[in-house]
Design goal:
Length: 114
């Protein structure tokens, strides 16, 4: 029964990501932050189901979106970037290193709040 609930939660979260991808494609200024939130949620669900590699991919995409948003409007989006970095680092030891540049995400998280 517990697995069924987790699978249902994963399906709903995947559906939310799909819908928000469509909305973000049509209205990026409005829905990209929501897409990043849904990707964070997806990463949590996947991690709970013992799928850390898939969780990490979702979390990294959320971080990439949050970085872009924070670069364009730091005052509004840096807190969201900090949350995404924290969530990415929580996925596991592999999550502490960014695949694109090898920089420690934990260090970036600290610098966001400086």
């Amino acid at each position: 029964m517990e697995l069924d609930c987790a699978d249902d939660a994963l399906s709903a979260t995947e559906e939310a990501v799909s819908i928000r991808r469509q909305l973000a494609a049509a209205y990026p200024d409005r829905y990209r932050p929501d897409l990043a939130d849904s990707l964070n949620n997806l990463g949590v669900r996947l991690s709970e189901l013992g799928r850390p590699a898939d969780a990490l991919l979702a979390e990294q995409e959320a971080v990439r979106i949050r970085r872009e948003l924070a670069a364009a409007n730091p005052d509004r989006y840096r807190p969201g970037l900090a949350i995404a970095l924290s969530s990415n680092a929580a996925v596991g030891p592999i999550g502490l290193i960014s695949a694109d540049n090898g920089s420690p995400l934990a260090g970036e998280l600290v610098s966001v709040w400086d």
